[in-house]
Design goal:
Strand content of chain A: 15-25%
Shape of chain A: globular
Helix content of chain A: 25-40%
Order of helices and strands of chain B: HHEEHHHHHHHHH
Distance between the termini of chain A: 66 Å
Low-confidence stretches of chain B: none
Largest interface: A-B, 39 and 35 residues
Number of helices of chain B: 11
Number of helices of chain A: 13
Largest sheet of chain A: 9 strands, mixed
Structural class of chain B: mainly alpha
Order of helices and strands of chain A: HEHEHEHEHHHEHEHEHEHEHH
Shape of chain B: flat
Radius of gyration of chain A: 24 Å
Structural class of chain A: alpha/beta
Helix content of chain B: over 70%
Low-confidence stretches of chain A: 26-34
Strand content of chain B: under 5%
Oligomer: heterodimer
């Protein structure tokens, strides 16, 4: 082979080795608004609960500022926290309270919207009528999900002749919904929840929808179908007997998304399992991220209702705005 | 047309440059070849370094034999995960090995060239299907069948053996994971076993057949004994693939941190532990160190088995000569 070609091949090989190394070394600096028109990419990851809202906000923000791209992925609140603290994303979506260990590592959080976790069973449940008329109390949920004392559907409904076992499902991934649900059940943690671990919010909804004896829990956006407002096919949301009356009152029976949102907004549905959803950044947000978060908490709030979430009270929102401005 | 002048040095270069270029190139490629090995060492060292903080607090023995996994209360017992991984992998091998070895034997000894030509690519396609697709398929097809068909049937027939008797009412179990994994490791085992069987000299088969042995006798008395180290290597390769498979297993195994007592119990293998919980790593003290430790254990086991397989294959190649 002529000397010339050999030399070129050697140069190309050297370049092929060195260039990727250089590219890997440089990071992506956070996009800064250029004084005038914001542009760049906003990356977010984390809770399934907050995912639809972020997507909606992303679309609306992009309409106002076409130079901004969004890169949003789900994977559970834990992932969102890890990614935010590790610098992989601009903001993490976290659907639970922030822990002191996380704040020590630099987690700077602000609540942006409210939603809730709802218990769900299959529509072919053998004692569905009793469940819908009596509701299920917190103690019963604790005995199903935490202590395991209640093992059959008959025990829940007060009909001991029904001996069908309860198939309990929980989340296997580190997420906000199980943390919140466990917090409701006597201030426990996700690891205290019994049941078969299924990955992801859609996963647990699917598992319960296919198992007539199943019970699980889902975020508002995954328990109800966004288009029809009814529970996802195969699921029935259980009325939570918050006042232990032994009866499910009409506003405790949540057969449509609108009723569920109303129950959370009015405070009738207990908090937890209703809780504020948070955005977490490493340190106080700045630049494009800050711009977006402030927008979401002010102008962005008008999209909250149509996206199927509950807005926070104005006091809480103002408190949050003070934190990020 | 000029002749190729590469065998003669260009007039303005000396013999010294040619030799230097040759040596430099050799040294350069040697460095590049070291990169993958260096990478493995870097991974082991990084994992070990990140895991050291939990080893400072808890002795290794307690970590490996502890049965309780409650990170928020500082309890990190890896035993359920190690045992769960072993159960799932063993179930996989018990299901996969007979099927795969017999399949490879058929392809090598009995199949005509047309059938062989059709089956080999199909098996390779199995290897190309992404893991998550196996997981979703397992979720939709295997889990309900185990729940409503296989588990109750086996419980009725063989329920007196604790292995088949389980309180788990769902299909998310060691058995489902084993079944899905068995299909995933089939291409690996069949391909390697087939190649190993092909290295057995045809002369041996011909000699055996000439003595009046049937094809099956030839296989059991001549071919398999000669190919045995290679077949074992193939099985070990499949084992290490099954040991480390994450996504597909995670979706069907149930993810309950308990010691399984039956193949129909739910379990929680090590890769699933890491994949499910790496999100929470930064939030609970020592959790990240614990998960890095788990990853290190996994890596060392898989590396160990792969090394065994390579050594066995080398032995097989030497035997075949």
């Amino acid at each position: 082979m002529p000397q010339q070609i050999r030399r070129w091949i050697a140069i190309l090989m050297g370049a092929a080795l060195v260039v990727p190394l250089l590219a890997a070394c440089g990071g992506q600096p956070a996009a800064q608004p250029q004084g005038g028109e914001p542009q760049g990419t906003i990356t977010a990851s984390g809770a399934f609960a907050l995912y639809p809202m972020m997507v909606k906000w992303g679309e609306e923000y992009q309409k106002l500022h076409p130079g901004v791209q969004f890169d949003i992925s789900a994977g559970g609140a834990g992932k969102g926290m890890t990614d935010a603290l590790g610098g992989q994303v601009d903001m993490g979506m976290v659907s639970r309270e922030i822990k002191p260990e996380e704040e020590k590592q630099g987690a700077y959080w602000v609540s942006v919207v409210k939603d809730a976790v709802f218990p769900a069973v299959n529509e072919k449940n053998p004692v569905l009528n009793e469940l819908l008329s009596q509701g299920v109390s917190r103690e019963q949920f604790i005995d199903i999900f935490i202590t395991g004392k209640i093992k059959t559907w008959g025990e829940v409904a007060g009909r001991p002749e029904i001996a069908d076992a309860i198939h309990v499902y929980t989340r296997s991934d580190a997420a906000g919904a199980p943390e919140t649900w466990a917090k409701y059940l006597g201030n426990k943690k996700q690891e205290d929840l019994l049941g078969i671990g299924v990955f992801g919010d859609p996963g647990i909804a699917e598992a319960v929808a296919k198992d007539p004896l199943g019970i699980g829990y889902n975020n508002l956006g995954y328990a109800f179908d966004a288009a029809s407002g009814k529970p996802v096919t195969g699921l029935v949301v259980l009325p939570v007997d918050a006042n232990d009356s032994g009866q499910a009152e009409t506003d405790e029976v949540l057969d449509t998304k609108a009723k569920a949102m109303q129950a959370v907004a009015s405070g009738k549905y207990p908090s937890p399992p209703a809780r504020a959803l948070n955005l977490v950044t490493k340190g106080k947000p700045s630049g494009l991220a800050q711009d977006f978060i402030v927008w979401a908490m002010t102008d962005g709030q008008k999209f909250v209702d149509s996206a199927g979430y509950i807005p926070l009270t104005p006091d809480l929102l103002n408190e949050g705005l003070q934190k990020v401005k | 047309m000029d002749r190729d002048t590469s065998l003669r040095p260009p007039p303005d270069r000396t013999m010294l440059t040619r030799g230097t270029t040759d040596r430099l190139a050799g040294r350069f490629f040697w460095l590049i070849a070291l990169l993958p090995i260096a990478l493995i060492l870097v991974i082991i060292v990084t994992l070990g370094w990140r895991a050291r903080s939990i080893l400072d607090v808890k002795p290794l023995g307690e970590l490996l034999t502890g049965e309780v996994w409650k990170p928020t209360s500082g309890q990190f017992g890896f035993a359920p995960f190690i045992v769960g991984t072993v159960w799932v992998t063993l179930t996989t091998m018990i299901i996969a090995v007979p099927v795969c070895v017999l399949c490879a034997l058929y392809l090598s000894e009995y199949a005509g060239p047309r059938l062989r030509g059709a089956m080999k690519p199909l098996l390779d396609i199995l290897a190309a299907i992404p893991s998550v697709i196996y997981g979703v398929w397992g979720l939709l097809a295997i889990v309900p069948v185990v729940q409503s068909g296989i588990a109750p049937a086996l419980k009725q027939l063989l329920g007196f053996i604790p292995l088949f008797n389980s309180k788990n009412p769902t299909g998310f179990s060691v058995f489902s994971a084993g079944l899905v994994l068995a299909i995933m490791v089939t291409p690996v085992i069949v391909a390697v076993t087939y190649e190993v069987l092909q290295t057995v000299p045809h002369g041996l088969r011909e000699a055996s057949l000439a003595m009046g042995a049937t094809r099956w006798q030839t296989i059991t008395h001549v071919v398999l004994p000669k190919a045995l180290p290679g077949v074992i290597a193939a099985i070990v390769l499949g084992f290490s693939r099954a040991f480390g498979e994450t996504i597909a297993v995670m979706m069907v195994v149930g993810n309950v941190p308990q010691m399984p007592r039956s193949i129909f119990d739910a379990a929680y293998p090590l890769p699933a532990l890491i994949a499910n919980n790496y999100g929470e790593m930064m939030s609970i003290p020592l959790y990240d160190a614990a998960l890095m430790g788990a990853a290190l254990i996994l890596l060392l086991v898989v590396l160990g088995f792969n090394l065994l397989a390579v050594l066995a294959l080398r032995q097989a190649a030497r035997r075949a000569l």
